[in-house]
């Protein structure tokens, strides 16, 4: 009987060809995520990976991967990575060697009044509800999601032969992305019983679970009203999918798979639904507002999807490598919630004792501490970090097909920030 695909991956070593991540980890819907258009599959042919058991592709995971430096990677592979084909998405072949601008600085002018505009959307006369809704919109968050949306919108506008200025609807999408994300945090804190978020007490800890749930619902309703005002039915459908994915992802997190091969696929799908779907569909939404080409929509979607999954993989690594002071929440939080994330699943290959702990969701006395030690003694953290690097490589490959612009280059630079962040 063939061994699980991710165990076999360990035998390949570091010389495995650079493969398309979404072809390597077969798609959750039953088809390669990058192959919805024939032209896309043709462009990615040189990135295909070798077939695995039963004809399914494998993802090469180096046993001892070296840390990837995105800047040097781009320099060494510019001709293949930035311009993978002679004709890339209807653009002329131009490129600037200017140093990419800092993504945060480049998006700053669009994000300056973001939280003030969100508070206007959440305006209510009842003081307590207003305080609840405004609690996380204090401008102290990273605003990663709206920043990605803003940069993608500007890059797409330039790609579509327009000025780089945001369209009104695109700015609203950026605002909605932060509102949906924050509402999901409020609900997650209730489900997880969390008492700390972003370095301060959670809403459920301050006001109680019932009021926290209602506040999350209210934020979602306000986001829905703002979405309806955009007036584009396709955008409404795309962003509505985010809310469905959030709910489905939360239900997936409540369950587990006994088979180790199914378990890892379950983990990646849950990661997409809970984290990456919002970024992917928000990027797709801003592309729809400026360009009618489905291939451009797919580029935006795939960039958001890959960056989103990588972001969560790094977050799962930080749960083992960062202290509570850096994360703003207790370390080993996932283990304490009974969750088996990437580092644990990879560690299972070296420490089979973890399987029983995973199935009982680390509920027995001493499970959390033992699992923590097993992960640190294994290469689970390194393997998860390497997988995040592969997703970031695919994000770069996708967005590099757009016309060169400071915003496009900032999106490329952002992938390195995702990999090197410590909180």
Automatic annotation (TrEMBL):
Keywords for this protein: Isoprene biosynthesis, Lipid metabolism, Magnesium, Metal-binding, Mitochondrion, Transferase
Enzymatic reactions: 6 isopentenyl diphosphate + (2E,6E)-farnesyl diphosphate = all-trans-nonaprenyl diphosphate + 6 diphosphate; 7 isopentenyl diphosphate + (2E,6E)-farnesyl diphosphate = all-trans-decaprenyl diphosphate + 7 diphosphate
Signal sequence interval, chain numbering: none
GO molecular function, one term: metal ion binding
GO cellular component: heterotetrameric polyprenyl diphosphate synthase complex
Cofactor: Mg(2+)
Pfam families: polyprenyl_synt (PF00348)
PROSITE patterns given in the database record: POLYPRENYL_SYNTHASE_1, POLYPRENYL_SYNTHASE_2
Listed InterPro entries: Isoprenoid_synthase_dom_sf, Polyprenyl_synt, Polyprenyl_synt_CS
Record EC number: 2.5.1.91
Reported function: Heterotetrameric enzyme that catalyzes the condensation of farnesyl diphosphate (FPP), which acts as a primer, and isopentenyl diphosphate (IPP) to produce prenyl diphosphates of varying chain lengths and participates in the determination of the side chain of ubiquinone. Supplies nona and decaprenyl diphosphate, the precursors for the side chain of the isoprenoid quinones ubiquinone-9 (Q9)and ubiquinone-10 (Q10) respectively. The enzyme adds isopentenyl diphosphate molecules sequentially to farnesyl diphosphate with trans stereochemistry.
Family, per entry: Belongs to the FPP/GGPP synthase family.
Name used for this protein in its record: All trans-polyprenyl-diphosphate synthase PDSS1
Designated gene of the protein: pdss1
